[in-house]
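Write out the 3D structure for:
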Amino acid sequence: MEKTELSWAEVKEMFAATDRQLAETRRQVAEDDRQLREQLAELGAYIKNVSKNVNGISDSNGMFAEEYFLDSLKKTLTFAGIHFDDAGDAFGGKRKMPDGKIVQDQFDIVLINDDAVAIIEVKYRARKEDVDTLVNKKAENFRIIYPYYKDHRIYLGLGAMTFEKEVAASAKQYGVGLLKQVGETVEYTGDWVVRAY
């Protein structure tokens, strides 16, 4: 193998060529990084827009379901075989407790008579967790926020356009009534007694 001697000018030219190649690589990496950042920003804006649209659809479905069940319950003023004098959807608020804790809640539909209240939570698609929330939170919060009704029997109901399969078993276990859309009417469903809380 033959040794080749390079002149200082040739060595300098090799270093210069390497520097030019590194500079081009850095420029290309910077350009790729810029393009990637632009694409990520566009993707982020797209995801935000899709999320906004999905949330809007979800909110609209929820408002539709609430209005549907409220209108139906106002017509009959009956839940779980109990007649009520009034039904409304403007219930909610907060109350500061003696220990400083604030109890805040909102109730989709409330039916009232002289000795009973029915709290109906409305979902477009009901899940088992909705039953748990009703039982473990809504009745007590209602009594705290509206102390006038603290001695009333409170019945709990869940109205929805569709139900996940675990909902009925959970509702039966806790004595929560289920309301579902059947054609143009609302039908109370379940072979169990709705319990007073």
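The CA atoms of residues 157 and 177 lie 4 Å apart.
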